[in-house]
Amino acid sequence: MSEESNKLDPISAVGIVSSLTKIPDGYYAVTQTTDGSDADLWKDGLFKSKVTRYLCFSRKTEPEVVVDMKLIDIKDPLPESFTLVQETLDKKEAAMRKRRLCVKMSTREAAETAVCDIQITAKSKYQLVNYTCVGEINNMGIWYRMGDVPRSQSSHQTRSAPKTDALYSTISRIAISRPQYQQLNNGIYTMTALDDVPFMVSEKFHVKPQQMQQVNLMGITIKSLAEIEEEFHYNFGTELSIVP
Question: Which part of the chain is the MABP domain (predicted)?
């Protein structure tokens, strides 16, 4: 993003007004095109109409910001995640007669960039540098410019904390899983993180033979190792006696 666009606060609302004398507080109206012509979106090329429509926008700090804009035909379906600018802000009349303006909103915290400026050009072939054309209406083009969404200090800390935790977690996993190497005379020996770690059963699971009880399960008697050795002990005395 350019330095100029970064200086502009994100736009938090876009609307249409029917009278320049009834612009809501905090809104800016686009009254002229880039070449100084009237930016009335309702005007008829043949007859002077008493009806006027002017695009306006607000940069008030709100929870949501505008991240995209589209100008569609009346019969076109509304794009997914977009909201229709259907009525004027001052008189609640139809915003446009030939086309429909719709905007896409996003929470300020989730948006990295947002719409920061809107311009209207009188000639469709006229290009604005670093601006995106929304569409054309009454031989005029509506353009918007994107800019970075500024972050407060607390927001930066909140957003960076999970990344820091994730980094430490990643480092811990690497330290555990990464093999270590020892150089020996006959080559390289790989030592894993589990080498030289003693494994033993916890003392709370140790049970003395005399403390074990015989369990009868479906007629099968479960005995301890000591009981089995005592019952089936055989010293091979007979076999040993005949050996010369």
Answer: 8-148
